[in-house]
Amino acid sequence: MVSQLIPIILICIPILAGAEQPVAEEYQVKGAFLLNFTKFVNWPPQAFKGPGEPITICVLGENPFGPALEQAAKETVVGNRRIAVREVSDSQQASQCQVVFLGGSERKRLRKWLGSLEGTNVLTVGESEDFLANGGVIAFKLGGDLVRIEISTAAADRAGLQISSKLLSLANRDKNSLTKGIH
């Protein structure tokens, strides 16, 4: 199963790398992960306004991906839904998204943002050390030249999200969170 997901992630990295402005390798990998998370998470029907609505990935705070994530998303379709990328600046806007990335610029407001998204069907993804402890679903961690993911299955359950066993297999089981590294 892991071997099926890794090529998907590796395919996305060159797409993001080919964008107009160069993007740091770390954010190429994180952007590929964000796109691929949409393929391995199931949202309840009420997370969308209708059957044709896109899966929206929102970046809350500074956008470290530049235009690369949006460009790669234009060519991505999951089921019958296309992927849209938006930058948002408040919790009302973020609650309308299916995926919200909270970058390092939001570290000081992390608890506030995650609290405001509690009770919504939003897959929260972040990169701060205490992201999962504050209620986030997926955290990126850097370890050497690896971007690792940690998944809080408890937070996913609270958000009404079903995470595929294929995505969970990328992580080591550890009570409420899972971790796995990808080069």
Q: What do you see in this structure?
A:
The chain contains seven helices and eleven strands. The chain has one domain (2-182): Rossmann fold. It is globular. Strand 10 and strand 11 form a beta hairpin. The protein has helices spanning 2-17, 25-37, 68-74, 91-94, 110-117, 153-158, 165-168; strands at residues 41-42, 55-60, 77-78, 81-88, 99-102, 123-126, 138-143, 146-152, 162-163, 172-174, 177-182. 32% of the residues lie in helices and 27% in strands. The chain is of the alpha/beta class and 183 residues long.
In brief:
With 183 residues, the protein is α/β, with parallel strands linked by helices. It has helices spanning 2-17, 25-37, 68-74, 91-94, 110-117, 153-158, 165-168; strands at 41-42, 55-60, 77-78, 81-88, 99-102, 123-126, 138-143, 146-152, 162-163, 172-174, 177-182.
Kindly list the characteristics that best describe this protein.
single chain, 183 residues, alpha/beta, Rossmann fold, nine-stranded mixed beta sheet, 7 helices, 32% helix, disordered N terminus, disordered C terminus
Strand order of the largest sheet: 3-4-2-5-6-7-8-11-10
Q: Which regions are unreliable across 5 or more consecutive residues at pLDDT < 50?
A: 1-23, 172-183
What structural category characterises the helix and strand content?
A: alpha/beta
Question: What does the overall shape look like?
Answer: globular
Tell me the Rg in angstroms.
Answer: 15 Å
Give me the strand/helix succession: HHEEHEEHEHEEEHEHEE
Number of β-strand runs: 11
